Amino acid sequence: MFVDGDCGFCLRTAAQIHRLGVDVQARVLQDQDLAGAGIDEARALREIAVIDAHGAIHYGYLGWAAILATGPWPWRALGVVMGRGPGAAVARAAYRWVSENRTRLPGGTLHVRCRPPMPPERP
């Protein structure tokens, strides 16, 4: 998993991921050759990027589904549910909410990339 090293929430999450028993290594994306790994840097700054065991790249909620799928029951089952059908719709909405509110969550920072886009000002 590749996380934004300028995002406190992302770093805190990466530091705690081992507690789930998943088989994943957390890396700060600013320290990696993203282009060489096939990762879209602009997208990786907005969404978590994960390369699975088969070399496929997943972003956002699908990245979390791939992470959870490497863990023990029940995380593995949750990862499968998150990647398909109605579970994917729920996972997408949950990921979006967390992403938009990560400055308010434990470890959140006010770094510009961690803030959701500001709505346009009204005249």
How would you explain this protein's 3D organization?
The chain has 123 residues and is mainly alpha-helical. The chain contains 6 helices and 4 strands, in the order βαβααββααα. β1 (2-3), α1 (8-16) and β2 form a beta-alpha-beta unit. α4 packs antiparallel against α5. The protein is globular. The model is unreliable at 115-119 (pLDDT under 50).
Could you provide a short overview of the structure?
The protein has one domain (2-114).
Arithmetic mean pLDDT: 88
What's the domain count?
A: 1
| Residues in β-strands, percent | 5-15%
- The ordered H/E elements are EHEHHEEHHH
- CA-based shape: globular
Distance between the termini: 42 Å
The helix content is 40-55%
The number of distinct β-strands equals 4
Q: Which regions contain 5 or more consecutive residues with pLDDT less than 50?
A: 115-119
Class by alpha and beta content = mainly alpha
Element layout with pairings:
Elements: E1 2-3, H1 8-16, E2 27-28, H2 34-37, H3 41-46, E3 49-51, E4 57-59, H4 60-68, H5 75-82, H6 85-101
Parallel strand pairs: 1-2
Antiparallel strand pairs: 3-4
Helix pairs in contact: 4-5
